[in-house]
Every structure is written in structure tokens, then in C-alpha cells.
Write a sequence for this structure.
């Protein structure tokens, strides 16, 4: 199995859309409830590129099987050294190390860009993602009870954080 991590290209958008829409329609990994269109996903990638934020994809034997990115945590100036990330792996490719490879590279890019902190929001039922992030050095820093609603139930969100550099 050959794994390649690289920057996303426009031709990757249909597969990114497929993975994203799977999560929207089938899971609470993503709190959206309406599938994205190809045009919306294209606009999303252009917005990330225009803002200078990375989108990485993971390929297995030439096929995109996952993606990761980061972007603005909150738009206020005081948050400028913090980014919020997401990582998505296709349902048939989980457990193969793609997420770790994507995140290690994404964390490296964030450090090189001078960011101090990386955060992520994880549905409280997603124990695999919580453990995955813990192994990468992220720590739970907050829980929001019944902050989301999907599939006719209230969802709790856990925030995790990784400090990318030591504070002085």
C-alpha cells in the first residue's frame, strides 16, 4: 500500500465532496445536515486557497481517501495565532494511518506558518477521534452540552487543543 500526502488540487474536489457528504448524511462527525453541492465544495477550496490555508489529501495507490485542513478559529484579531482543523477519512480507509499522516503534516505546516495553537471540535460520541487526537498530543479543553442537533437528538461537542509552541 502506497500512501501519499499532498496538497489538494481542483480535480480532487469530487472525491472530497463524496467523503464530506458521506459524513454529513451518515454521521455526527459533521453537524451539517444538507449535502454540499460540487459548486459549494469548489467555492470552499477557493476560499481556503485565497486565505492561504492548506488543504491536504491522502492517496492510497493514486486514489484520494481522505483530507485535512485548517482555517480561521474565530475572526477577531486576538485569535490570529490559533487555527481550527478538521480531518476526514473515507469510511473504507479508516485505520490505515492516513489520519495520522495528514495531521502530522498539517501540524508541521501550522508550526512553519507561525501559529501557536490548533483546536478541533469533536462530537462526544466519536471516541475514536478523541483517542486519535490524544495520541497526537491534543488535550480536551472544553465540553459543550447539547450544542448541536442532528438525527433528532442533541449532540455534545468536545473541544481539543494542541499548543504548537511553548509559551514564554
Amino acid at each position: 500500500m502506497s500512501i501519499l500526502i499532498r496538497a489538494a488540487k481542483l480535480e480532487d474536489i469530487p472525491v472530497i465532496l463524496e467523503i464530506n457528504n458521506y459524513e454529513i448524511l451518515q454521521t455526527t462527525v459533521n453537524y451539517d445536515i444538507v449535502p454540499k453541492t460540487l459548486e459549494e465544495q469548489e467555492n470552499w477550496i477557493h476560499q481556503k486557497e485565497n486565505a492561504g490555508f492548506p488543504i491536504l489529501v491522502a492517496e492510497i495507490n493514486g486514489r484520494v481517501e481522505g483530507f485535512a485542513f485548517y482555517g480561521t478559529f474565530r475572526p477577531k484579531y486576538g485569535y490570529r495565532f490559533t487555527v481550527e482543523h478538521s480531518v476526514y477519512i473515507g469510511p473504507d480507509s479508516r485505520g490505515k494511518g492516513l489520519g495520522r499522516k495528514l495531521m502530522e503534516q498539517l501540524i508541521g505546516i501550522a508550526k512553519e506558518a507561525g501559529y501557536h495553537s490548533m483546536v478541533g471540535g469533536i462530537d462526544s460520541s466519536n471516541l475514536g477521534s478523541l483517542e486519535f487526537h490524544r495520541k497526537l498530543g491534543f488535550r480536551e479543553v472544553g465540553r459543550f452540552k447539547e450544542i448541536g442537533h442532528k438525527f433528532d437528538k442533541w449532540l455534545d461537542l468536545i473541544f481539543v487543543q494542541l499548543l504548537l509552541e511553548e509559551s514564554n
In short: The radius of gyration is 16 Å. Residues 138 and 162 are 5 Å apart (CA to CA). The first strand starts at residue 3 and ends at 7.
